[in-house]
């Protein structure tokens, strides 16, 4: 047992001794490894420091080298600048020397000029003393002698030139006019006194006539146009000497047939609307005409009057087409003879605007047109050209003569004018003016080719008895002031309306 205990102790001691030996060996190995790592770190740090020193030295060398290069470049630049400065100084010195030489030469030239002036003055004094005449007197005497010697030749030359001008002026004028006429072409026919509208069906014909004819009577009363529904199958004929009224009636009927509602109240509304549409069309026609001939700056009021000429005829010739044609020819002629093209074109385009208001204002159309042009700020040259395009005012400018010539050319074109149609329209206007000359008249329309004048009076100014008397007075004045075939019916219409609104 003791031996067992001893053996156990010996085993324990041996185990403890082995543990101590292993721990000692582990500690010794770790220390050796740490020393090895420190040595390696020191070696690497030393290498890094050496490399950093080498790079720093290299950078310093490069900087020094670059600095040296810059210094050399600056030295070269400084040398060049110094050399240029030296050259400039030399050139300035040379310029100063040349300037002094030039000033000396100028002084010498001036002294020579003074000597020459003195010599000329002395020579002139000697010549005047020898001739006994002053310079001005000698010049005048020489001119008299020259004029006396060549007067006969000059007179002959002037006479020759005048004869040549007379011989060639007419031929040249004919060439210019023919050239303008050949280059200008336009239609000369115009719608006369009737307008036809196609009916959609026979039922529409009855609706337009209305019960006991009230619709067609309302249309005729509102538009002042004769409406014929039985003369041509499937057609309605609008008859009036005034194209503007026919256009209003045509547009009104088309709107009524399209809408389908036809009664006197609706008719009045549609006629008023049609009148506004025609007003727009009138202004558009004036603007289009001005644009076509290339004239700008015409006042809007004058353009409106110009557009109304689309619905006017003069001796059967459409006045707007006539004016547009004239403006084109005026431009061609003005360019040929050197006149002001703008004035010539504007004046010819507007020369007949007085015809748009002739039946409203008394006076000849060219005087009325000139007053309108002056009222709306047109230039004096244009006003004069408009006023002088007929023979009662003398044309004092080239442009006024151009307008007069173009008016004659346009009117002289074959088929351009129809005298009988113009006389008829003039008689219709005169008949309406006679009716309008009485007080209390609202509207007056000449219808049925002048066989009837329809007069609409203001009911607040004319009573029933006065209407009867007015019809007799109008008939008497027509008999005493107008010449006409057959008889003329005077139809005075007095209508009273009471209108209120339920709100």
Evaluate the radius of gyration: 56 Å
- Biggest sheet architecture: 3 strands, antiparallel
Taking the alpha carbons of the first and last residues, their distance comes to: 143 Å
List SSEs in N-to-C order.
HHEHHEEHHHEEHHHHHHEEHE
The average pLDDT score comes to 80
Low-confidence runs (pLDDT<50, min 5 residues)? 182-191
Total number of helical segments? Answer: 14
Instruction: Give the proportion of residues in helices.
Output: 55-70%
In total, the number of strands is 8
Strand content: 5-15%
- Sum up the overall morphology in one term: flat
Give an overview of the whole structure:
With 503 residues, the protein is mainly alpha-helical. The chain has 14 helices and eight strands. The strands form three sheets. The chain has a three-stranded antiparallel sheet with strand order 1-3-2, with helices on one face. Strand 6 (441-447) and strand 7 form a beta hairpin. Helix 6 packs across helix 7, helix 8 packs antiparallel against helix 9 (341-350) and helix 8 (319-337) crosses helix 12 (398-412). The radius of gyration is 56 Å and the shape is flat.
